[in-house]
Amino acid sequence: MIYAIGEVSERIGLPISTIRYYHKNGLMPHVDRTAGGQRRFSDDDVEWLRYLERLRATGMPIAEMREFVELIDGGEETLERRRQIMRNRRSEVEAQLAELQTTLGIIAYKCWYYDRALELGDEQAARAIPPEEMPPEVRSARELCRFSW
Amino acid sequence: MIYAIGEVSERIGLPISTIRYYHKNGLMPHVDRTAGGQRRFSDDDVEWLRYLERLRATGMPIAEMREFVELIDGGEETLERRRQIMRNRRSEVEAQLAELQTTLGIIAYKCWYYDRALELGDEQAARAIPPEEMPPEVRSARELCRFSW
DNA sequence: CTTGAACCTAAACCTTACTTCAGGTCTATC
DNA sequence: GATAGACCTGAAGTAAGGTTTAGGTTCAAG
């Protein structure tokens, strides 16, 4: 199938302006044009865009994504560098995951604390609950952040 | 213990300018000052800064963090709103975790692919490896992204 | 009591990642 | 072949989250 930019935007939920911006910045080099100059996207282009979105969500900068896209067109010469970029991305994502998991624990503790405080009608009372009465996930997260606020 | 801004910066690895910026924007309301106007941070202040950093890493905007800090000083009246903010943060972090985990799988597949391509000296050969010979994590991630690039 | 390193502020500047605008062109449909 | 809605471009604008600069003050060691 072939799509105009508005359809692509609709399908993947990214603004038209963003898709143009990515295209302009070399993140989607092989997009076709009509004789009149309008962009026409293939299913592969749409799929690629989804992949770009995923990488962006890991915090990968536009410039690095462009480098990566250029390397792909560079053939076998660039394999090593591409691997390096992906390995680097992998460690970043692993680090993010580890931190987010810990933070999620802390946030869950806060939520538990607010639930108890509202239930008991009193923050002091919630703060006085002994660790033994906390659910286990909450108990362990509590040690990572000594504020009950 | 009491610390000057440079020591805090050193200890937690955040630039001095950022700490000043956070303070100025109401994220650390209770920091002391010397008679001459220099900031003096307590252990609790340092701990609080670490907590702010964690929340920032989840993508929480500065403005929302400031609101949260103000609510804490607002007492019991604000419990409901504080809970709402933390619940909201929780779902955002959960969504991020889910997406990052999937993306990590895809990235791991790419790394595996580059390893094989470099090992075999040929991308075509790597692409020709049948799914049965892939490690299981890699095999499942491969289905999420049909590009071998 | 001096002096150099560390600190202060306000204001300007910067970077990243988009978004909006103005003015014009394409294209599918009637 | 007219026309409305979708598309185009380059350039300017925006928002968030800091960072840098300039000009001055404070602090602690000697």
Polypeptide structure, described:
Two copies of one chain form a homodimer. Chain A folds into two domains: 2-73, Multidrug-efflux Transporter Regulator, Chain: A, Domain 2 (Orthogonal Bundle), CATH 1.10.1660; 94-145. The first copy, chain A, is 66% helix and 5% strand. Chain A has seven helices and three strands, in the order βααββααααα. The interface between A and B is large, with 42 and 42 residues. The first copy, chain A, binds a DNA duplex (30 and 30 nucleotides) through helix 2.
Low-confidence stretches of chain A: none
> What would CATH call the architecture of the largest domain in chain A?
Orthogonal Bundle
CATH class of the largest domain in chain A reads: Mainly Alpha
User: How much helix, percentage-wise, in residues of chain A?
Assistant: 55-70%
Number of continuous helical runs of chain A: 7
CATH topology-level fold name of the largest domain in chain A: Multidrug-efflux Transporter Regulator, Chain: A, Domain 2
